[in-house]
Amino acid sequence: MGAERDYTVTVSKKEVVAAVLPLQEHWLPFSNLDLLLPAVDVGVFFCYKKAVGVGDAMSFGSMVSVLKKAMAQALVSYYAFASEVVPNTVGEPELVCNNRGVDFIEAYADVELRNLDLHNPDESIEGKLVPKKKQGVLSVQATELRCGGLVVACTFDHRIADAYSANMFLVSWAEMARSKSISVVPSFRRSLLNPRRPGRIDPSLDHMYMPISSLPPPKQHHQATDQLISRIYYIAAEQLNELQSLACSNGYKRTKIESFSAFLWKMVALVAAKDDDSEVTKMGIVVDGRGRLGEGDKDRASLMSCYFGNVLSIPYGSQRVNELIERPLSWVANQVHNFLDQAVTKEHFLGLIDWVEAHRPEPALAKIYSNGSDDGPAFVVSSGQRSPVSKVDFGWGCPVFGSYHFPWGGDAGYVMPMPSPAREGDWVVYMHLFKRQLDLIETEASHVFRPLTFDYLDFSGSN
């Protein structure tokens, strides 16, 4: 059978899972870096083959019981995910940690795991396997498939957690399910991200971030088909190595994420040149600041490594379309490296914290996300190389596939490459770009971007 998009999902049960121990209600402020995030939800899902057990030991009901019990235990440490977001007296969001709990949905999908159309998640995953979060901070859905396989999916408020924090929780939840102690106890010590007195703000931050009162008018799309859609691709290690080789020149070493991003930037420029009168295109790359903020202080580094919240910055570059097309990949990779270089320092993140403090309580956001009517195409690459797919084992084996799912609704695209669970060095890449951009990428770079099917994943044994 081929890939299926159109299938029925039946919800059988909804309930709220709270922390197993009572928690004293308290308020947890957003850090200055949390305040830079818009109110958007992020999805993540994991696919499991049919579990092989004795009798009904691995029935859907028993697996759901394991998931719920382990979640109630994990929420004792990760209580932020059992909380609610409320405005404070000046209108800024804060967390009230009241053990409201997590909405947990049980469902059945009339589809075989191996026939899920993962290449087109908007039709096969969105609104079916990844839950819509209606209340609270986190929602979870466990879906039994026709073949006995299982999909476990979460949707969480990005203002509460970045991918690093969500990954910590997912691994801890799985450890609890296997009756292990959690390996990382999260820290909510907001003082780690306190602003300096007086603050020191580099002028470059005004280029990267803006108060929402300065937002440009919405971008006007010229074509009826001009819409952002999601697709998932598979990239072999050999192709990544080739891109990296082409991106390195004159003794300069470029990382795989720099090389991949440079190649993708060239592809987007090709679309812009064919499509309209755009003269420039912008690309941002998400940088995690935990390692930077811990530099030079062993204790602080240890605390930052388990800090729960957002510790992100999004530097970006803007280049003329014709230059991106005409110049070699190594030149584009150098431009990527140069704009990244300014944001991979301790001083950059300390300055960003101070910048937010200077603009509070007015909300602000990264400029790359505010793609106005006069701007060319823009997109953001967020490296998901720490995605813990192989560690999200609840006791019935590792996932055969896992991916973030982030059709966030803005005008800028979003791309997240993650390690493949099937073969070391290969990537799975979630891409949320305009349809015309993805169509050209599939035409011009089919040797690199292969539409994801389960043929690329490990499907030995039962399905």
From TrEMBL:
Gene3D superfamilies: Chloramphenicol acetyltransferase-like domain (3.30.559.10)
Coiled-coil segments: none
Superkingdom in the source lineage: Eukaryota
Pfam family, one: Transferase
PANTHER family assigned: HXXXD-TYPE ACYL-TRANSFERASE FAMILY PROTEIN, TRICHOTHECENE 3-O-ACETYLTRANSFERASE
Record family assignment: Belongs to the plant acyltransferase family.
Protein name per the record: Shikimate O-hydroxycinnamoyltransferase
Organism, as annotated: Theobroma cacao (Cacao)
Biological classification of the source: Eukaryota, Viridiplantae, Streptophyta, Embryophyta, Tracheophyta
Gene for this chain: LOC18595518
